[in-house]
Amino acid sequence: MKRILAHLLCLIMVSVLLPVTYAKTAEALPRFRFDRAFLIGFQGRELRLKAKVDNYKRLGKHVNAQLQDEEGFVVLEETFKSSSYHTVSFTVPDTWFGEKSLSWWVDGQKASDEDLLLAVDNISNRQVKRVGTRQPRMAITIDAAYGDTNTLKLLSVLDEFNVKCTFFVTGNWAQAYPEHILDIQSRGHEIANHSFSHPHMTTLTPEKMRRQIARCSDAIEAAGASRPVLFRPPYGETNEKLRAVSRSLGCEVIMWTIDSHDWDPAYNHQKIVRRVTKDIGPGHIILFHNDGKFTPDVLRKVIPYYQSLGLSLVTVSTLLDEGEYSVDKEGLVNFHP
Fold first, then answer.
1. How would CATH label the architecture of 32-121?
2. Which CATH architecture has domain 130-335?
3. Domains of the chain, residue spans
4. What pTM value is reported for the model?
5. Which of 214, 253, 270, 283 has the fewest CB atoms within 10 Å, counting from its CB?
6. Which of 121, 143, 189, 194 does the annotation list as catalytic?
């Protein structure tokens, strides 16, 4: 009986002391916090960020920590000597590109509850305006943000001439017309990202830029289409930050070689045709709009002209599918040997 009581007493003591011991151990582990969840960085350039030890006062000592990427690469080592936010900096490796995440580690243990997400880009890579293709081909693109009056007419014309093109749609448009999303893709056309609500993207914070692009891709995917790999900024407004955010989400930034001006009331059918048939060549990207008054008739006229020049009309992704490339300051895609 005495032995049983002794065992019970031990079990009670263990059950009481273990949580206390665990709590003390947990308190002894530093917990880091970044001052923001998302940052933009550029290869070969300095990146500054802020972090602090949330429980520094409870620890009562300096904390030596390592900043690591998701693959365990140690970016920097730093000693934190106060409870305030501390600014650290490092040069972004040239091998980084796209989406990266950073976290703090202490003595082999992860010490930050939330990672810092990075959008990393080569700042010299500009937005695509023309493709230095080795093939006799070009691309027609159609932006869809408002209404669907011409959608079926446009698809009929494209089918008539066996042409494949890229539709840049907003997330709002994809949600409003999911049947068109499926129809466009089923006919072999490409569906790309044009932001969620068509804002002036360069006026937004990086976090809001990211949300606009991600929400649009989500809406397109929810409608049953493939997740986009191309992004066209509304109003053609872009900068190095927006390019980095877009590429971190897996979308190349696409502009145009020629704007048809089919959106402009000052342009009639003839003026649009003249504009989009002047100095046409391989690698050109032509911009049209889904709600352009004359667009279906213009396409019916200019597509045979393009084809008479020996040019195949393909999607933008097909135009870019010739290997690794860079985009120069003029927006020309140069494929690497």
1. Sandwich (2.60)
2. Alpha-Beta Barrel (3.20)
3. 32-121, 130-335
4. 0.89
5. 270
6. 143
**Is 143 one of the annotated active-site residues of the chain?**
yes
Distances (CA, A) of 215 to 103, 192, 194, 196, 245: 26, 13, 11, 6, 13
Examine the residue annotation and report whether 289 is marked as an active-site residue of this protein.
Answer: yes
Tens-binned pLDDT, residue by residue, of the chain (337 aa): 445 444 544 444 444 444 443 444 445 789 999 999 999 999 999 999 999 999 999 998 999 999 999 999 999 999 999 999 999 999 999 999 999 999 999 999 999 989 999 999 999 999 999 999 999 999 999 999 999 999 999 999 999 999 999 999 999 999 999 999 999 999 999 999 999 999 999 999 999 999 999 999 999 999 999 999 999 999 999 999 999 999 999 999 999 999 999 999 999 999 999 999 999 999 999 999 999 999 999 999 999 999 999 999 999 999 999 999 999 999 999 999 8
